Amino acid sequence: MLAIFGGCIFTMGGPPVKVGTVLVDEGKIAGVEAGVVIPPGAKAVDVTGKIVMPGMIDAHCHVGIAEEIYREEGDDSNEMSDPVTPHLRAVDAVNPADLGFRDALAGGVTTVVTGPGSANIIGGEMVAMKTAGTVVDEMVVQFPAGLKAALGENPKRSYGREKKPPYTRMASAALLRETFVKGLDYLKKESLDRDLKMEAVARVLRGDVPLRVHAHRADDIMTAVRIAGEFGVKLVIEHCTEGHLVAARLAARGVAAVIGPVITNRAKVEMQGITLETARMLAEAGVRFAVMTDHPVVPIQYLSVSAALTVKGGLSPERALRSVTIDAAEILGLGERLGSIEPGKDADIVVWSRHPFDVAARAEKVFINGREVFAASR
Questions:
Q1: Where are the domains of the chain?
Q2: Radius of gyration, alpha carbons of the chain
Q3: With a threshold of 0.85, does the pTM exceed it?
Q4: Domain 1-55+340-378's class?
Q5: CATH code at 56-338
Q6: 15, 205, 244, 343: which could join 281 in a potential S-S bond, CB 3.0 to 4.6 Å?
């Protein structure tokens, strides 16, 4: 057993424990106690004066797939041979040796969702994984973690310049609908040859995983909502830059969002409406959301900074912390396992030198499944 004692514990499942002990046994949280409680035989870790938090979750990035120091050699994010590739699996492209995983640990990020980019109308299936390990299969938390799709400028730019559809937003929506119709036909057939593309689409149509749609502009967001409604599928909006303009509609339909990157400029026309106030306005409307880095767009170690900037936009610090812990976990369907320090959950714990929103804060120790995987001093 491990006893991490003396710190202020932000459990994210209730009020902070000003001075407490986190007990860990066999990779899980065994208990959270007020004061210093060290069971006989437990390994004691003194974190007096520090902040103890659940590991942060980056709900949308490309770590392991888009390696920063490479071009074609390490970029496996977009398969631009076909605008509809639902059968691609992010898990097959992840390189555990990507330096981004080390950066994630240094930034207190213990779980990521990584996946295809946004060149295709449907890019493939995303994967949720821990950020420490040498073999991808042993790092996976959930696969698939959603089917990545994209609307707006990127598919138009990627294929229109090659004189291929989609040239227009109409064609993008039509390709998405057409694929779902094929998926419904696939589900209706009792005896059929195996079709990997349709298997991935069927998982969305059955409600096993959500459709996760890259959409910045409000009209693209509503196109995704419209199509999801037509086919009765679970929807998460990725980026959601102008989500504040349609926040009430997202809330009414129970659509969640993963917003960001926050630390960026108006990199393209569809991002002209970017504002730090989006998170606050989504919260006020009742929309569930997480904050992303979109690594390597924003380096993954700046997830805490990204969440902190939403406070500058008017979001409460507590809600901002939730956006990279328990709220992110719940959007991913992993709330019973990740996102808070509560008995029975994975012992993914970060010891911070001070509040993680403080620009001078650093992650001093990181535990994943109860094992220390990073120490700033080393």
A1: 1-55+340-378, 56-338
A2: 21
A3: yes
A4: mainly beta
A5: 3.20.20.140
A6: 244
